[in-house]
Specification:
150 residues; mainly alpha; 78% helix
Length: 150
């Protein structure tokens, strides 16, 4: 069976443009994310960075699924939520944060996923994601500094 040129182009676009969702990846539910947010807000300052990093990672998985399902309204809301939580990470990053390397790895994966989906968003969402990516870059720099100074 031969594929037409347009089929190959469409398949290539889908494979390259859509965020990669592993077949066995579990997308966090709203209840999971709410629970994580409550744990993070009540946690000791040294644990908040990691918990908020987990939350941002989960939200990024959620927005990727929303974009894949062509649910732009919910994806937009989730992108705004990601931006808010990234601000919380930056605000709550302390010198004695626990799980610094784990947080940094989660944020690296989050960055990768956000960059993948960037071109699938409208201009307003692209601007928000670019702002968020800059914040995550700054946080990663701070986390790496902590990893290499301890």
């Amino acid at each position: 069976m031969y594929l037409s040129l347009s089929s190959i182009a469409a398949l290539s676009f889908f494979l390259l443009a859509m965020p990669v969702l592993a077949a066995n990846e579990i997308i966090p539910t709203a209840a999971d994310l709410t629970s994580l947010q409550q744990r993070a807000s009540q946690a000791r300052p040294s644990e908040q960075c990691f918990l908020y990093s987990q939350m941002v990672h989960g939200l990024t998985q959620k927005v990727a699924a929303q974009i894949a399902a062509d649910d732009s309204e919910h994806a937009n809301a989730t992108i705004h939520q990601i931006d808010q939580v990234v601000s919380l990470i930056q605000h709550n990053l302390t010198r004695d944060s626990k799980h610094v390397k784990d947080s940094e790895l989660l944020l690296q994966d989050t960055t990768y996923r956000l960059i993948q989906m960037l071109h699938l968003l409208d201009a307003d969402d692209q601007a928000m994601v670019q702002k968020t990516l800059k914040q995550i870059d700054n946080i990663n720099d701070q986390l790496l500094t902590q990893v290499f100074t301890h």
